[in-house]
UniProtKB/TrEMBL annotation, chains A, B:
<dbReference type="Pfam" id="PF00196">
    <property type="entry name" value="GerE"/>
</dbReference>
<dbReference type="InterPro" id="IPR036388">
    <property type="entry name" value="WH-like_DNA-bd_sf"/>
</dbReference>
<dbReference type="InterPro" id="IPR039420">
    <property type="entry name" value="WalR-like"/>
</dbReference>
<dbReference type="InterPro" id="IPR000792">
    <property type="entry name" value="Tscrpt_reg_LuxR_C"/>
</dbReference>
<feature type="modified residue" description="4-aspartylphosphate">
    <location>
        <position position="59"/>
    </location>
</feature>
<dbReference type="InterPro" id="IPR001789">
    <property type="entry name" value="Sig_transdc_resp-reg_receiver"/>
</dbReference>
<dbReference type="InterPro" id="IPR011006">
    <property type="entry name" value="CheY-like_superfamily"/>
</dbReference>
<feature type="domain" description="HTH luxR-type">
    <location>
        <begin position="141"/>
        <end position="206"/>
    </location>
</feature>
<dbReference type="InterPro" id="IPR016032">
    <property type="entry name" value="Sig_transdc_resp-reg_C-effctor"/>
</dbReference>
<protein>
    <submittedName>
        <fullName>Response regulator transcription factor</fullName>
    </submittedName>
</protein>
<feature type="domain" description="Response regulatory">
    <location>
        <begin position="6"/>
        <end position="124"/>
    </location>
</feature>
<keyword id="KW-0238">DNA-binding</keyword>
<dbReference type="Pfam" id="PF00072">
    <property type="entry name" value="Response_reg"/>
</dbReference>
<keyword id="KW-0597">Phosphoprotein</keyword>
Length: 208, 208
DNA sequence: CAAAGCATAGCATGTTTTTGTTATTTTCTC
DNA sequence: GAGAAAATAACAAAAACATGCTATGCTTTG
């Protein structure tokens, strides 16, 4: 299979980004491969690249942000880009989150070359590719995803740092009642019954 | 630099293991490179390889276990092996844990090729290499590492699953007083003041 | 624009956790 | 086999939390 296009890798783990770019090169399907480990540089590249056909291999975990939040940027700068998530995540909520954005492909870092080839082939044929191990997380119709509001996540961070309700209230200039209300709502959403469980949930799903 | 020896990569992320192995090959310092993503297969390889000179590039995060627990196996099977940790961890406790085992090298996955070369050169000269970003975690003399006992970790798991002190006591057939005592001890060790902070700590340091 | 969801706030009550302090038995480790 | 560390257990007071219920103004979005 020969895909006459450019491929670009974005992963904050430089060693992975460079190695994987090498693998893409060696694989021979692309006519050029670039790798980035800094979001800024990647965005600069996109800007200069213009609206040509392009493959983007994206990591979900990026420092300070995540792969999803730059998806809008990518789509704005290049509406032809084929976007493939390469993720080490296994937390259902994270996978669901990624799937919600309907990328062209999603591959686990535990995948092998064979999976990778299948992914490319599917996309070239205009279909999407979802790593088989993520199939169970494809949303059923009517199913709701648990999401957290910015405020909730902010408060969660305070709790994770050892702040009590009263301390959090003081630091956010809110009433302790409000903190209780938020906290209660979060725990109801995530179906947790102790703050310990809530924090485990938050960590697992990379909310904080 | 030409190192006439075999190199082997162990990382459960196949895509990384394979890509990185390719990078090692391309780099040209080794006369052969193998990659594994399953611990069993890796151990089998070690057994058959015998006690020859060897470079091992090891991930810390492995499913069901971690890179440290197989260190003893590696040393038993090959006392000449140069062991380099390639890790995505940044949690101080995890890094300290790795450093305690005195590997020949430790490199962050965020390192670049230049860092990698420096690592190899240092080891070839008989010295150890520690990623500069991990320097702060090198233990000072007299410094204590925070460790958790098996019982403590067991209880931590109960808490992470939403069990209260009373519930945990019931499930472990212990007195609630005992649970309180353990809990208190852990929190003192980790310098946490709420169970929320404790659970965040536990997650960050991959205790549970 | 209406409905839904978000952020805010309140009160009351019973439960749970945290903290200060102490102590015995068992199990490693040198 | 002595000493250290771990696991066990207890009591009591103070602080914090969970949960029952209600309610209002503000955004966002179909």
């Amino acid at each position: 299979m020969k895909i006459l296009t450019h491929a670009v890798v974005l992963d904050d783990h430089r060693l992975f980004a460079d190695s994987f770019a090498l693998l893409l090169q060696r694989f021979g399907a692309f006519d050029a491969v670039s790798s980035f480990s800094k979001v800024d540089e990647f965005i600069d590249f996109l800007r200069s690249f213009g609206n040509q056909k392009l493959y983007v291999f994206l990591d979900y975990y990026l420092p300070e942000t995540n792969g999803l939040s730059i998806l809008t940027d990518i789509k704005r700068l290049n509406n032809q880009a084929k976007i493939v998530f390469i993720t080490s995540a296994i937390a259902p909520a994270v996978i669901r989150n990624i799937l919600r954005y309907k990328p062209h492909g999603i591959l686990s870092k535990s995948a092998d070359i064979q999976d990778f080839i299948m992914c490319l082939e599917a996309i070239e044929r205009g279909r999407e590719y979802i790593d088989p191990q993520f199939e169970p997380f494809v949303m059923q119709r009517g199913e709701r995803v648990v999401t957290f509001t910015p405020r909730e996540i902010e408060l969660l961070k305070y709790f994770s740092q050892g702040n009590s309700i009263a301390e959090t209230a003081a630091k956010t200039f809110l009433s302790p009642h409000t903190i209780v209300a938020h906290r209660r709502k979060m725990m109801a959403k995530a179906n947790c019954h102790t703050i310990a469980e809530m924090l485990t949930y938050a960590q697992k799903n990379h909310l904080i």
